[in-house]
Structures are given as C-alpha cells and as structure tokens.
Design a protein that fits this description.
Layout: E1 21-24, E2 30-33, E3 39-42, E4 52-55, E5 58-62, E6 68-71, E7 78-83, E8 86-92, E9 134-143, E10 154-157, E11 164-166, E12 180-185, E13 193-203, E14 215-218, E15 225-226, E16 236-237, E17 239-243, E18 249-252, E19 259-260
Amino acid sequence: MGKIILEEQTAPDTPATDKVVIYPKAGGGVYKKNDAGDEEALTNIPIATDTIWVAAGDLVVGTGTDTAHVLTAGATTKILVGGGAADPVWTEATGTGAPVRATNPTLAGVTLSGIMAVGENSVQLDATLSATAKYSGITCDIVIGYDSATFGDLVYLSNSDDRWEKTDANTEGMSGDVMLGLVISGGSSDGDAGVVLLQGFMKLTSFDFASGGDALYVGETAGTMVATRPSTASTIVRVVGYAGVDADTVYFNPSGTWIETAAA
C-alpha cells in the first residue's frame, strides 16, 4: 500500500467552488475545508505508525490513530517512549545537564556473546586492591577436591579426577607439570563448585610478603606460596608470581617451567 504525504497548512486558502482541501495541522490532526471556508476535523484517519515528518520545525511521529505525537521545535529534554502494543509518547527526561558519552563506564555482570576487540589499548587490572579477600584478574569455574577450601589457597588441577587440590612442592605432580590457581571460592566440601584466579592480583592479610617484586614459589606446606626458594632435596622450584605493591598483595602469574632440586 502506498502513502500520501500531506504538508502542514497553518491557514490554507478556501478552495474553489465544489472543491475540498484536506490538510494536516500542528499536532497531527487532519482537517478539511470546503468551498464555503468551513473547517472540519476528520476522524478515524490513521496516521501510519512508521511515519515521521517535520512540520514547522516540529518533529511529528504517527501513532496509527487519528492523532500524532509532536516534539515542539526547540525542546531538548524529551525522549520518545513506548511503541509495540502502545503508542509512543514524547516524555520529559529526568535529570540535569546535557547528555554525555561515558568515556570510562563501570560495567557489572556483563555477558559477551561475541568477540571483545580491545584494539590498540589495554585491559587494566587493579594492582592496589581496597581490602583483604579482593582480587582483579582472569578467573574460571572449578570443582574443588578437598574440604574447607579457603580464599588464597594455592591449588592445581588434578588429572586423576579433574578437581582442584592443594599444591605441594615435594611432589612434581602437585606443583610442577600442572595448571595452577588461587582459590577465590571453593565451598566447604570435596566436590563443591568454586572459582580460582588464573592470573592477576590478589590481596590477603595472611600473605605477608614484605619485599615488593620478589618472586614467589610453590611452598612445601600444602596450598601455600613462599618468598624463599625451596632448597630441600627433590623439591620442585616453580615461580608462581611476585610480591605486590604492599605486603598483603601478590601478582599471580605461574611460570610454565620449573626445576627439581637434587636428590639427597
């Protein structure tokens, strides 16, 4: 179906004898004027919902009824709300000041369904965490493999049951050729769901690594990091990160290589 677009007339001339002029007026109403100069509003003439036009500087949106919604020229605080089953309406926007584009928006709980292209820029982690039990980095969901998992435990992915267990530098299969993480949440029982930090910053008062930048290693006590390189015979020496900006913060970034000290 085609459309006839009528130009708004503020005071159309009286038509010739036996003629009628049909025209829209400001506000979207449609009128007719006969050869006697009599004006009459026409009803039940739909204005298409997908019709938008400018009349005397005003923005007019068709509503599918015999009226239209008009945004008066110069109005800067109106937004068009509605549509679908309901007619759209020009509505006064709340708030103050001119609209701006956020240059550093804060997002929470965002799920991406496609590729996030960073371009010539960076993903910036927070190295100065605000309080204990805070972290900033790359994480993943896990299944914990022991009871009473605690925030900050150093764990590895066991190839025997695909669960995450506490590390131990005394055993290669628990500290060397394995994937490592720091527990963020692990539940209270073996088999509970959890989350580990794979790379990034973590703050915990019990870390207490005073010399910022020093390398940290898998400890001989289960599930710990230490600032002193293990020297016991037949232990695994593997760097897992570095002491951070304060004694309670670490940068976790496990090395992919390790060595084993000489046997006794």
